[in-house]
Structures are given as structure tokens and as C-alpha cells.
Amino acid sequence: MAIKHSLEADTEYVQNKKTVTEFSSSNSIASCENTKDEYKNSITNTEVQQSEYTESINPNSDFNTKNANTLQDSIQDTKKDEITLEKNIDSIEVPNKVESIPLPNTTAVSVPSIQKNNTNTSQLTGYEFFNSILKSSKLFLAPMVDQSELAWRILSRKYGAQVCFTPMFHAKMFSNKENRGYFNEMWQTNEQDRPLIVQFCANDPEHFLEAAKLVEDHADAVDINLGCPQHIAKRGKYGAFLMDEWDLIYKIVNTASKNLKIPVTAKIRVYKDLDKTIEYAKMLERAGAKILTVHGRLAEQKGHKTGLVDWSKIKAIKESVNIPVISNGGILYREDVLSCLKETKADGVMVAETSLYNPIIFDNSLSADESIPPSNNSCVNGLVKNFDIANEYLDIIKGGVETKISYVRSHLFKIFKPSLPNYPDLRSELAASKSIEDFSNVVDKLKLAMQPEIESSKFDPYNIEIDEFGYKIIPHWYCQPSIRKEYNKVTSSGDKPLGRNVVNAE
Asked: Cα separation of 129 and 132, whole Å?
């Protein structure tokens, strides 16, 4: 679902509220219901965005403390607006001849320029699909809500991502025949966007199947999200909050695998108990899943409790099933990809959060030979300047890939996270930007502001120092993973920090 900054949502709400009052009763009911759904989604996602937005600001800054408070106030205001909007909807008089109201187009919208899949690949075994369609790929870009959109997938593919997932889509909303707005807004791809796997969250077999049917002509597989640990997933009863409902999960996967012409895959988390984890994976294989992506953390390991990644459980799953297994979690630097493949014996590695802060994480990741040229001349030993990456991303959008402003802002805040505390005025300008031109101007200003420090720096990208916890010491103007160093303040035994390869950003 689309994340909207609260102030943008408030502005759009006022405009929509005015429209509500102007509509006649003969044509307003469907539109108002759609608007109400939009703002329920906006409220939910603004709450999700709050933690991300406050993470990008300096808590010691008066400006940013005010920003955080404003964001919280806006969430409450938007909730009040939603209640008011609902009252407006309920007060509309329904005409006697409801059947005369024109219904929205219920035909699935496809992209004419994209050739449809002509081959039924659903009957391939997991490894037949992995080897022939996915070309035995090792590097996977994770499904990330409002983050792995088409423009970001294009950028990631440029730097070595071999298979990309879409953001997670809500299956029921995606397949809603009476309101195609969500589908039209979310579904975006092109000829170069392959191999592509589309991820849905669902708690109903028919909803998952209906949503998957809408994309099977333009994707290589569909994935069921069984790993999302966030509160929004708990409220919606999907993701990791289905982990105790094996019968339902089996039906969702099995129904789709029997009725689609492309394979079904699943992204899961692990249990505390290893035997239960293995049985869970085997159940999904029996249900018809052709690939399992395994995040090596428990469902409760999130936020400040993110904690350890257990690669040993991923290895155990790999040794227990007869379908490809993709490892997820524990990747901070490109050399971690090789370490993960070696330790887990997985068929591939999926990178999520780290790729948002450093999209060249995939670049040259599978080679220990530094003489192999990187995919972009601006890369030096796996490092690239953040303003160069930001401009590449913006150039993709300028080239005609339509992208929501809220997505762009979120990406730029992550790319520039190490630098923004040094430039509070430009951080404020970035937060206030409302167009691609605005963003480009801020990026240019950040680049100019960094030049004196870059020119005077003694940093050697081929001789990177390591801190006491095992993390690389990298100047702020380079893309780099976001490290949750607060975890290093606590210890497992009380006598030493947990440190690198035990706790990290993924």
C-alpha cells in the first residue's frame, strides 16, 4: 500500500472532502467509499512510516524533534478526518435505482507493450524453474512495501540484482473488481523487468488466486508473504501472523499452484524449534511451493528486538527439502553474500534493507577477484558516492518511469542517511520537496556541500578500517548499510558487545 507523508495526506484529504460534498447522490457512493479506503490505508501506512522517518533525523536536533511531533499530530488529525469522511459517506442519500450508477471498469489493466507469457511453467519442478526461468540466479532483491517499485528495481538490476520482487501487494485490494484504483496504482512493470516475482499478502485462498491471475501473464512467479512481522500484518492477519495456521497456508499455496500457469513461491521466517521449522518448510513444499525464501529470524525479532540471524536454520531447511532455498538476512556488505552462500548452502541470497541504503550491494558480489570491473565506473572497491546513486535513480524516473513522490523521498532519505545530520537545512529541504526537480536540486546542493570534505579526505577505499564491533568505517558521502549500533550496548553474556555478524541491519 502506498505510503503517504501525513502532511500530503492531509492536503489530499481536504481536496477529496470538498469533492465529496459536491458530488450528487447518483454518482458519489462508489467514489466516497474509494476515498474512505484510501485514507484508511494512508493512516495505516503513515504509522508505519513514522518509525522510518524519525530514524532518519537527529534526535538531538530541535528542528527534528518538532518534525517528529508534527508527524504524530498529523497521524491523529488524519484519523479524525477519516471519521468525518465516514460520516459524510453515511449521510449521502442512496437513490432508488442504485443499478443505474455506472460501475467502474472491472477488466484487469495490462501493459500493451509487454509480451504475455505463452508457456505454462507451473508444472516445472522447483529446480527446473530455478535453472531455466530464473537462470540459476544468486542475487535477489527483496519485496519491500513501497520501496521495491519499478524505478528501484531498474536501478538494482543495473548493479547486479538478478531477480527482483515487487513490493508486497494486498491480494484482496489488488483483486477488487469493483475498485481498480489500487491495482492501477500499484501494478507497474516493463519488458526489461524480468525475471520478476510478484508478492502478495493474503489470508484467503481465493483472494490470493484472483490477485495472482491478474499478473501471471507478466511475471515469472507469485509469492505469498508469510514473513512480515509488523503490527500492520497482525491487524490484517497475514505475513508471519499466519505461522500457526498451517491448514490455511497449505490451502492458499495449493489452490494457487493448481490454478496458475506460473509457479508459487513463499517467503517465511523460522521458529525457535528447529524440527518445527523443518516441518513447516516441508509442508510448504507439499503444498506446491517451488522456491522458499527463508528469513533467519523469529516472527518476534523486529525493530529494537531484531537481534540475531540464524543461518544454521536456513542450512537445515536447505538440507531437508527438494526445492531451491533462498537465504534472507544478515547481509551488510557484498562479501557477506559469499559468506552466506558458503554457510547456508542456499541456492541464492536475498537482500532487503541494506540494498535501500546501498543499492550497489549486488555489484561484483559473487567475485573475490577485485580485478573484475564493476558495473559502473563510479564504483571503487564496492563503494559509490551517495549523490551519484541518487542522481542515477532520479534519471531513471526522469526517463519516464512514473514514481510516487513519497517513494522518492523515502529512498533519498535512506541513501543520504549518513550525510544528512551534517546538513540540517538541506535535510529540511529534502523533507519539503514535492517534485523530481526539487529532489534534483537538493541532491546537487548536497554534492556541492560535500566537495570540500571529499577533496581533503585521506580515506583509502582499498584500505578500509574496521571499528571495535567489526563494522567498516566509511565516510558519510559513500552509500553504506544502516547499522543499529544500539544493539552493541547490550550483550548476550553481560561482558562484551555482540558486534559484527551477530547483530546487523538486515
From this structure: 5
- In tens, the pLDDT along 28-44 reads 333 334 444 444 444 44
Using alpha carbons, list the distances in angstroms from residue 397 to 112, 282, 377, 403: 20, 42, 21, 7
pLDDT of residue 115: 65
Q: Worst-scoring range by mean pLDDT, 61-70, 163-172, 232-241, 274-283? A: 61-70
Run of H or E residues at 335: helix 334-344
Q: Is the pLDDT confidence value at 471 over 60?
A: yes
- From the list 17, 11, 15, the residue with the least C-alpha distance to 32 is 17
Q: Catalytic one among 164, 228, 340, 479?
A: 228
Can you give the three-state secondary structure of 187-202, one letter per residue? Answer: CCCCCCCCCEEEEEEC
* pLDDT at residue 11 greater than cutoff 50: no
Confidence band for 238, pLDDT divided at 50, 70 and 90: confident
Mean per-residue pLDDT, 56-73: 46
Burial class (CB in 10 A: 0-12, 13-18, 19+), 73: exposed
Closest CA to 452 of 414, 423, 474, 416: 423
Task: Assign residue 248 a region (left: φ > 0; alpha: ψ between -120 and 50; beta: otherwise).
Answer: alpha
**CATH numbers and ranges of domains, the chain:** 126-379 (3.20.20.70), 381-505 (no CATH)
d(CA 324, CA 458): 45
Q: Which residues contact 104 (CB under 8 A, 6 or more apart)?
A: 30, 178, 179, 180
- Cα distance between residue 119 and residue 97, in whole Å: 46
CA distances to 273, 294, 504 from 192, rounded to whole Å, are 42, 27, 33
Q: Is the pLDDT of residue 378 over 80?
A: no
Look up 379 and say whether it is catalytic: no
For residue 201, give the C-alpha cell. Answer: 499478502
501 — alpha (psi -120 to 50), left (phi > 0) or beta? left
* The overall pTM is greater than 0.85: no
